[in-house]
Amino acid sequence: MKWFIKCLKNYATFRGRARRKEFWMFTLVYMLILFASVLLLSLVSPELLSDDQTAYGTSSTDADLGIGGGILTFLLTIFYISMILPSLAVTVRRLHDTGKSGWWYFIIFIPFVGWIILTIFLILDSEPNENKYGPNPKLE
């Protein structure tokens, strides 16, 4: 959790380096929050996940969320929009740690293979010494 909070404190810091542990722990906590929020939303509004047709012939996607589901959906939307910048920043800092420019992030837009290449870059070990993006965070 401390790595997640550290990334939130550096939410718009695109300079410097982020070690593997910082990036992957942030990603893990973020995915756990995503899973928990979908689970919570399904408990509050179970009709969202139902494939049943209603008596009037409308699909379950037309179902009313109710006040609780609507508020929860609004809060989760705000949360996920607010997490775009911190997740982008930690990804760029992680790329810096491997010696690559943050512009490599845009390789994700290459269909089919872009996300694979980016994932490989994010898995690579840190450059052992200081690089043009700063000192090795493992040594600090």
TrEMBL record:
It comes from the Bacteria. One of its GO terms (cellular component) is plasma membrane. The chain crosses the membrane at residues 23-45, 65-90, 102-124. Pfam families: DUF805 (PF05656). Keywords: Membrane, Transmembrane, Transmembrane helix. InterPro entries: DUF805. This is DUF805 domain-containing protein.
